[in-house]
Amino acid sequence: MATDIDLHLGRRLRRRRRLLGLTQQQLAVQVGIRFQQIQKYECGANRISAARLWQLAEALETPVSYFYDGVTEAVERKEAAQSGGEMFSRKETLDLIQAYYQLGERPRRRLLDLAKSLHDGADATS
To answer: Of 20, 22, 24, whose CA–CA distance to 100 is shortest?
Structure first.
């Protein structure tokens, strides 16, 4: 039976894979496993070993810590991960994120800085 942590890691894996526009098959090929294994990881049916998590993090160009972000909150409040998933299921959100990752590293950083400054500016005018 899947634990809350297995479910959280699976959700984070699915989210990151989708953000990068990868299919389960494409990710599986990158780490040398079958796509069914990715499916099992994403739904929490199979536990992800430390070595496999490292491979997945490398393939998804993210630190291993990404998968554990928010795990404490998710365990304490199972609904927290579900409510965050609504935002990422919107087409405009996925389109924006995919466009963001098509940019080079420097333009991405500049765009992120711009978004943060717009948010900070909105707080200042409130």
So the answer is: 20
Taking each helix axis from N to C terminus, what angle separates 91-102 and 79-89, rounded to the nearest 10 degrees? 70
- Residue that has been written with the tokens 């609504």 in this structure: 86
Amino acid at 119: H
pLDDT in tens, the chain (126 residues): 678 889 999 999 999 999 999 999 999 999 999 999 999 999 999 999 999 999 999 999 999 999 999 888 877 766 544 555 666 677 788 888 888 889 988 999 999 899 889 977 666 655
E strand or H helix at 27: helix 24-31
Rounded Cα–Cα distance for residues 99 and 85 (Å): 19
HSE, side-chain direction, 13 A CA sphere, residue 89:
7
